[in-house]
Amino acid sequence: MDRHIPFDGLHNFRDLGGYSTPDGHRIRPGRLYRADSLGKLRRGTEDWSHFLALGIRTVIDLRHPWEIEARGRVPDHASFAYHNLSIEHRPYNQAALAPDIDPGPYLAERYLEVAQDGVKEIRRALELVAESAESATPLVFHCASGKDRTGQLAALVLELLDIPEATLIEDYSLTELAAPDILAAWKSNNDGREPTWLGFGRAPHSAMRTFLTSLKARYGSTEAYVTQELSLDAKALSTTLRTALLEPPPTTWPPLTYRKATPPDAPTLVRLRDTAALSQLARGIDQWKPGEKDETHFRTRMREGEVWLAHAGPHLAGAWELWWDDPAAWGPRPADAGYIHRLMTTPHTAPPGTGRRMLTEAESRIAATGRPYARLDCLSSNPRLRTYYESAGYEVVGEQRAKDGGSGSPYAVTLLEKRLH
Questions:
Q1: 230 is in which domain, residue-wise?
Q2: Structural domain count of the chain
């Protein structure tokens, strides 16, 4: 499941469904959406029909009135109620900031200002979310790019639903996938000019992490902020949201099916890898970075080896690469192994055990070629991943202290091998 719902004119429209709580429940899909400006919607278009088909009954617009005046608002329609709640009281022009301003601490400071200034509007927004949840009707909230003000409200709602902080940070950082389109839209609206701030449109995980840390340092907890600053009963609000919006996870899942990727799949693979990278970074795992592998990389791997996709029903569940040699990590070797790379699953939505089943499928493919070994490597600084592969039957057989992965910065990897029977 790609959380970004495709529209022609909207770039950051997402479903918050599927995120899980520590006690095993998950947010019901199709009930809570976040978005960039719905003022870009126009009656009579496919986007408008697509939006109406979602059954949304409440729209919360977090922008300033002057933004709405300049850029428009969602068209009126009898199917939903519209609310303008401008939570930001100290506007700032991100595009005009100096190039060297670090986005992480700068944005976190602005978010804390909004949390202090916009108490009346934030309180009303949370009340509307609760009312929508109780009535079992879908709701969407949005600002201009669906990043800052929208990201703050999403974080509060997810916290009240008891979604882990790492997932809050991940959800915020998914705007990174829309950042190129957000930048292109700004340039189109500004005669092709480039914003001076290099951080424009970006959503680094450090910004949300720092904001949440600052909020909790000031108030003790997010619940205390909701109670003390917003004058809401945080416990009662959390109970309302959890009761109405959470559901047990599915008890059955569609079986996984596999197929070889073809060149038209390259954009999907790039997006899957970037999504997985953002999920890792939100959890402090510094292994992959978004943007490191482009479409050319995946097309090359299809040509020189194999790339496989896994689906659960109609939905993408994961993918992996299969190489027939790997001299950068393993040096010159006889043709006695297949090398598994970029084993990746769709965060939060892949069926349980998808990674292990894809690993088994990759091993079967290697064995079918007559090669007796499956090999892979992981960063030496990632012991959790090493433990995962060891639990799947792989043994550590060495370490490559200076693997050249093509980035120009050699790194150390642990080498693991499994004898196939």
A1: 14-247
A2: 2
Positive or negative: CA dihedral 283, 284, 287, 293: positive
240-294: pLDDT as tens digits: 999 999 999 888 999 999 999 999 999 999 999 999 999 999 998 888 899 999 9
Judge contact between 207 and 114, C-beta under 8 A.
no
Q: Give the residue from 294, 315, 271 showing the smallest Cα distance to 174.
A: 271
Q: What is the CATH number of the domain that holds 273?
A: 3.40.630.30
Return the H-helix or E-strand segment holding 216: helix 205-219
Is there a domain that residue 7 lies in? no
φ and ψ at 9, to 5 degrees? -105, -10
Mean pLDDT across 333-362: 96
pLDDT digits (tens, 9 = 90+) for 120-177: 999 999 999 999 999 999 999 999 999 999 999 999 999 999 999 999 999 999 999 9
- The answer to whether residues 171 and 261 belong to one domain is no
Question: Is 1 contained in some domain?
Answer: no
CB-CB contact of 399 with 379 (8 Å): no
The C-alpha atoms of residue 413 and residue 411 are separated, in whole angstroms, by: 7
Domain with residue 174: its CATH number is 3.90.190.10
Tell whether 101 and 140 lie within a shared domain: yes
DSSP 353: T
Kindly give the residue spans of alpha helices, DSSP state H, lying in 95-204: 103-117, 119-134, 149-160, 165-173, 179-189
Asked whether residue 4 is domain-assigned, the answer is: no
> 104 forms bridges with which residues in the sheet?
none
What whole-number percentage of the chain has pLDDT above 70? Answer: 99
User: pTM here?
Assistant: 0.93
